[in-house]
Amino acid sequence: MATRLLLRPLGPRLKATRHSTRPFSTVLDAPVDPKTQQITPPGRAQSAFKDAVVAEAPRTNWTKEQIAEVYNTSLIELTYAAATVHRRFHNPAAIQMCTLMNIKTGGCSEDCSYCAQSSRYDTGLKATKMSSVDSVLEAARIAKENGSSRFCAMGAAWRDMRGRKTNLKNIKAMVTGVRAMGMEACVTLGMIDAEQAKELKAAGLTAYNHNVDTSREHYPSVITTRTYDERLRTIKNVQEAGIHVCTGGILGLGEKAHDHVGLIHTVSTLPAHPESFPVNALVPIKGTPLGESQSVSFDAILRTIATARLVMPKTIIRLAAGRHTMREEKQILCFQAGANAIFTGEKMLTTACNGWEEDKAMFERWGLRPMAMEETIGEKLVVSTETFDVGSEHSTVA
Ligand code: SF4
Fold first, then answer.
1. CA distance 308 to 261
2. What is the pLDDT of residue 6?
3. What pLDDT, in 10s, does the model give residues 222-280?
4. Is 334 a catalytic residue?
5. Alpha-carbon distance 228 to 16, whole Å?
């Protein structure tokens, strides 16, 4: 499986020539003009970058070529522009703190090549039953005490929610309980249909995470058990139910720079930009097909964040998995370039995560502060705590 996936031919490149003289490692195919600091020659195409810098509102009609132009701007110019736009749409001191809890680990039937939770790979991970409602709410309480405003507590290793009525009932109780504490609630449960999305909305769900992972072209090299379009269908169901969408990607899956452009193009041309765009750096897990992968270069991460900030100016950009491998200065560069959310706590699904104390100290050094809920969804708590019973009858279920 590993060999098959890794040797599968990659999609066509945007341009065929690679210039070895370029001064940074992630740009596609052309040298920088020292006068303009642009990769593309001056002219019509260059206006996409300029337009993005002066934009007053998000737009969803981006072409891949326009996004490639932004992505290919020299990093020093790109990050400066992203920082400028970031200040127009966000308070640069406010960083959303989210805590992630896995409510059911492992045993997943999908074949995502990077994932420790797939039952197809021997990673030594033991599958668990679903956590009880009480234990999730206790973890949410601790997260809130430590400054988290969003509890993305509920990652569950499932393909979809078909035939999981009891699980859905308990998850709704978790959502309602988290919202009753005055926090935002996010879940990631695999594919969901329109009806399930409506039920979760009624329970008070703030956001649903469903990453597209990479570009449409590179996607089949990473996952074969569900299609890109199936992922987009879930995102559509979530958007139509009025739930905020959190969708982004993973860098370091063997993709090329033009796949970062493709990823941003997919999410920025949805009917509405996602509320949140997580940027994950692959943490290679031994036993998975991508377990021996080389780390993605930092400039590729920074370039992706800065491009996403310019292309989706209002979206919250989440520095997600892999942050614990970055020195503080690198994290700050990401915040300067437009990232404004982190996962904090003890563990991110099956990989390590920066701890609360470490993050608090970093915030203090740099004048950062946790983002308030009103700054993200701008919504007051509206869900009745009586809608669902969150008592102890919800025990651990399979
Ligand atoms: S990423 Fe999600 S769907 Fe894919 S194998 Fe892991 S748990 Fe399953």
1. 9
2. 35
3. 999 999 999 999 999 999 999 999 999 999 999 999 999 999 999 999 999 999 999 99
4. no
5. 25
pLDDT at 350: 56
Ligand 1 contact via 234 beta carbon (within 6 Å): no
**Centroid of ligand 1 to alpha carbon of 361 (angstroms):** 33
pLDDT in tens, 30-54: 555 666 555 555 444 458 999 999 9
Residue 66 C-alpha to ligand 1 middle, in angstroms?
32
Check pocket membership of 290 for ligand 1, CB cut-off 6 A: no
Bridge partners, 396 (sequence order):
none
Beta bridge partner(s), residue 152: 100
Cα–Cα distance, 236 to 265 (Å, whole number): 16
Annotated catalytic residue, options 98, 150, 179, 186: 186
Q: How far is the CA of 78 from the centre of ligand 1 (A)?
A: 33
The span from the CA of 88 to the CA of 383, in Å, is 32
Is ligand 1 within 6 A of the CB of residue 157?
yes
> What is the bridge-based pairing of β-strands 351-352 and 347-348?
antiparallel
Beta strand 369-370 with 94-104 is parallel
pLDDT tens, 106-138?
A: 888 889 999 988 889 988 888 888 888 999 999
Mean pLDDT, to the nearest integer, of 281-304?
93
Return all residues near 189 (Cβ < 8 A) that are at least 6 apart: 154, 156, 158, 160, 161, 171, 208
pLDDT at 324: 87
CA of 356 to the centre of ligand 1 (A): 26
383 lines ligand 1 (CB under 6 A): no
Is ligand 1 within 6 A of the CB of residue 115?
yes
pLDDT at 156: 64
- Which is catalytic among the residues 98, 112, 334, 353? 112
Determine the pLDDT at residue 70: 96
